[in-house]
Amino acid sequence: xxxxxxxxxxxxxxxxxxxxxxxxxxxxxxxxxxxxxxxxxxxxxxxxxxxxxxxxxxxxxxxxxxxxxxxxxxxxxxxxxxxxxxxxxxxxxxxxxxxxxxxxxxxxxxxxxxxxxxxxxxxxxxxxxxxxxxxxxxxxxxxxxxxxxxxxxxxxxxxxxxxxxxxxxxxxxxxxxxxx
Length: 180
Fold this sequence. Notes:
7-stranded mixed β-sheet; single chain; about 45% helix
């Protein structure tokens, strides 16, 4: 089972993903892709808020490059909650297009072969203005394309907005991908 929870900032994405993990009744491993930065107290407060909400029996892994490996090693008795795809993508913005393509294809393949229940939190960054800088546009484009590809494989896709989760697989129609 693969679920994606996407939406804008402060929409309830992580809380909904946590509810899905609880509902799975499996052993939950929370995969944190964000890195602690002690020089940014506001960022540390955000991470602490996430940590406080998690049940004590959930295992937490702080990862970056190892995401695909963790997915392939998980068993059908596991629930992996990946929070978040955006911070994982941001860690590899310096990858060349060829390296990024390989990295994202490896992740997609590992999700297809994963035996565990997987819940991925993904930020929606393309709802605002076009970023003024090339690196911002690259981040937005890579995250948007990867989220779309993962959602195409997913059993469930939820859009969290204003504290509500909408089931996009139930309510929406998938747009066919057209590659030029």
